[in-house]
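hey
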């Protein structure tokens, strides 16, 4: 059955030809597609225009994949496990993956249904070691065990356990979906320098001239045990004529990304005026602190990069109220947002003495099929 809040999925018929992406979804160097079911090899042979492809089981071959209109799609490595199971290794463009899946004409796999299946599915796209370890525990039944014991507890103890689960849900959300951290500030505030320090390499162009960064530069970074989506944005300054349209668009994008972010760090260099109209929860950080005394928090990414990294990590954990150690072995974590909302709703309401109402609420999530 489908989980609450989702449309009922269309399942592939028994014995149908099923195609699915084995690699993590999204852009990458390589994408791997599995085709399984009766006629899998025959379908790949047709796509590759290679009738003798995979005559030997457990073989590899290089093949040119073509559309029904004979358009070249990609050159792929084909791994033939058997006539009913074939893997294709393609270039990792999401658009290409979608096109090849469509050309294969196979049914999509049945989506994950149980909590354990959902955890296994999310595990493939884990953004950090902590996320992978947490999800692996849930795939082994940690969350199911935590939920199953709730209805049998006394109301007071049940409320304590519910509160703990809701708290862990916020941490689980930050592990599964990396929070967005946006760097904003005036031109030459040191945003790109700090960005490069946090991602660990020269990703953003650093220059003394104003307006060097005109678009948003995004990169995955690590703050403690958490992966984050770090965004470097265009410097903010007064603009004049039509020649500044590109930079003006970059500043508007910075404000928009900041409004949608979990955390905005506004870098204020020496002599810059206090910022106005920042989104709720934004933190003002005094940058280029090596140039003179500044109130805390203050940092110098150029002169003290490791200390700056530690300072940003501290600000991040404090602002989002995330523990330094986000994962504990065997602990149930509600990693599905809809389930977390259900638990929070139950916590906000009155708990019936025998737990029957909560048991009914949890029943769809604990179903095994």
């Amino acid at each position: 059955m489908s989980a609450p809040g989702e449309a009922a999925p269309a399942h592939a018929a028994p014995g149908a030809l099923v195609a699915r992406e084995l690699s993590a979804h999204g852009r990458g160097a390589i994408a791997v597609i599995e085709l399984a079911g009766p006629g899998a090899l025959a379908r790949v042979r047709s796509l590759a225009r290679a009738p003798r492809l995979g005559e030997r089981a457990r073989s590899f071959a290089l093949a040119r994949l073509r559309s029904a209109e004979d358009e070249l799609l990609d050159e792929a490595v084909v791994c033939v496990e058997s006539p009913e199971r074939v893997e294709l290794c393609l270039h990792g463009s999401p658009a290409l993956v979608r096109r090849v899946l469509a050309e294969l004409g196979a049914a999509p796999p049945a989506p994950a249904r149980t909590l354990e299946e959902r955890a296994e599915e999310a595990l493939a796209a884990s953004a950090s070691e902590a996320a992978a370890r947490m999800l692996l525990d849930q795939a082994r039944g940690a969350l199911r065990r935590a939920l199953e014991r709730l209805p049998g507890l006394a109301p007071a103890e049940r409320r304590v356990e519910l509160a703990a689960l809701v708290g862990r849900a916020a941490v689980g959300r930050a592990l599964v979906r990396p929070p967005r951290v946006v760097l904003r500030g005036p031109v030459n505030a040191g945003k790109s320098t700090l960005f490069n320090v946090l991602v660990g390499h020269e990703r953003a162009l650093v220059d003394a001239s104003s307006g060097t960064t005109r678009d948003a530069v995004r990169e995955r970074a690590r703050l403690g045990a958490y992966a984050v989506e770090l965004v470097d944005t265009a410097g903010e300054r007064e603009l004049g004529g039509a020649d500044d349209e590109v930079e003006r668009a970059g500043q508007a994008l910075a404000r928009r990304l900041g409004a949608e972010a979990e955390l905005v760090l506004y870098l204020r260099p020496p002599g810059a005026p206090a910022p106005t109209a920042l989104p709720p929860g934004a933190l003002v950080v005094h940058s280029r602190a090596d140039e003179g005394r500044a109130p805390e928090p203050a940092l110098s990414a150029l002169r003290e990069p490791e200390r700056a990294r530690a300072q940003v990590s501290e600000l991040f954990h404090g602002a989002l109220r995330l523990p330094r150690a986000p994962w504990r072995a065997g602990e149930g974590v509600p990693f599905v947002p809809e389930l977390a909302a259900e638990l929070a709703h139950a916590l906000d309401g009155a708990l019936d003495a025998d737990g029957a109402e909560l048991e009914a609420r949890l029943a769809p999530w604990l179903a095994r099929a």
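Confidence is low (pLDDT under 50) at residues 1-14, 205-213. The chain has three domains: 18-104, 115-176+329-366, 181-303.
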